[in-house]
Amino acid sequence: MKSMQELEAIRQKAKKAMKVREGQENAIVVSVAMGTCGIAKGARDVMMALVDETAKRGLDSVVITQSGCAGFCEKEPMAKVHMPGQPEINYGYLDANRARDIVARHLVHGEIVHDYVVQLPGGEDRA
């Protein structure tokens, strides 16, 4: 289990790695559920993989944030992707490799990674 200092270091690293621009209308926003269940199932690793992969690819218009409990504990770790002009996509059962895949396929190429979707727009549950 990571200490509070280690968690703060991760948070600071994430803030430094991403250029979060307030009011950026065309930003792609990725929100990682960081409630207790998500953290216990590996949400920190998912968050860091998203931050690292977007930084490595120079995706300056991507904002990585965190949220609280998503309410689907059994589907954690989860992340939500919102691309301007498109519905939000909820991904679940994530790990660091799946997070990198989402960056490569969804954030870079605009391809929804259906294998990881847990809830489609309109509320249809995939799990």
Query: What is the rounded Rg?
Result: 14 Å
CATH superfamily: Glutaredoxin
Helical content band: 25-40%
Count of helical stretches: 4
CATH class designation: Alpha Beta
Low-confidence parts: 19-23
Order of helices and strands: HEHHEEEHE
CATH architecture: 3-Layer(aba) Sandwich
What's the β-strand tally? 5
Identify the strand order in the major beta sheet: 2-1-3-4-5
Tally the structural domains.
Answer: 1
Mean pLDDT: 85
Structural class: alpha+beta
Whole-Å distance between the termini?
A: 29 Å
Report on this structure.
This protein is of the alpha+beta class and 127 residues long. A hairpin with a 6-residue loop joins β3 and β4. It is built from 4 helices and 5 strands. It has a 5-stranded mixed beta sheet, covered by helices on one side. α3 crosses α4. The chain has a single domain, classed as Glutaredoxin. About 4% of the residues have low confidence. The N and C termini lie far apart (29 Å).
Quick gist of this model?
With 127 residues, the chain is an alpha+beta fold.
